[in-house]
Design a protein that fits this description.
The chain has about 130 residues and is an all-beta fold. It has one domain (about 5-125). The chain has strands at about 5, 15, 20-25, 35, 45-50, 60-65, 80-85, 90-95, 105-110, 110-115. A five-stranded antiparallel beta sheet has the order 1-7-8-9-10, with no helix packed on it. Strands 2, 3, 4, 5 and 6 form a five-stranded antiparallel beta sheet that branches. It starts with a strand and ends in a 17-residue tail after the last strand. About 20% of the residues are buried. The mean pLDDT is about 95. It binds zinc ion.
Length: about 130
């Protein structure tokens, strides 16, 4: 099973069977809410509290629940966490910060090793050119 870590403080952020991050809508002054992600890449189900008001198309920034670091890329609508798979291989995982957008990237040595979701062609330029097969 994949395990996940904060890229800033290296704290484990997968508890039980979910990745947990703090989510704050961009340019809002709310405290945000906790969001649970599925640990299987390409499974875009998201679990939130019933009071969470995030709607499709919103730009959400994600924060480490331990060190509170903003995990957003500076120049793109992407959030970055780290993953260690069951073989012990380490990857960067990047995913879209736009609610309802399905785009996740598995990155090794600065290159796309795999990508997931029907919107995943949208951000591939972030890692330079990529063959479109
Ligand atoms: Zn952290």
């Amino acid at each position: 099973m994949n395990d996940y870590f904060c890229p800033k403080c290296n704290a484990p952020i997968k508890i039980s069977n979910h990745i947990i991050l703090k989510a704050i809508p961009k340019s809002s002054n709310t405290l945000g809410s906790m969001v649970l992600f599925e640990p299987i890449l390409g499974d875009f189900r998201v679990t939130t509290h019933k009071t969470c008001t995030m709607k499709d198309g919103m730009h959400i920034e994600f924060y480490c629940p331990i060190c509170n670091a903003n995990l957003s890329a500076e120049d793109e609508y992407l959030t970055h966490i780290n993953m260690t798979d069951s073989d012990g291989d380490n990857y960067e995982i990047w995913f879209s910060e736009i609610t309802g957008e399905h785009a996740t990237y598995k990155i090794k040595a600065g290159k796309i090793a795999d990508k997931y979701g029907e919107h995943s062609s949208k951000y591939t330029n972030h890692w330079g050119s990529f063959p479109t097969y």
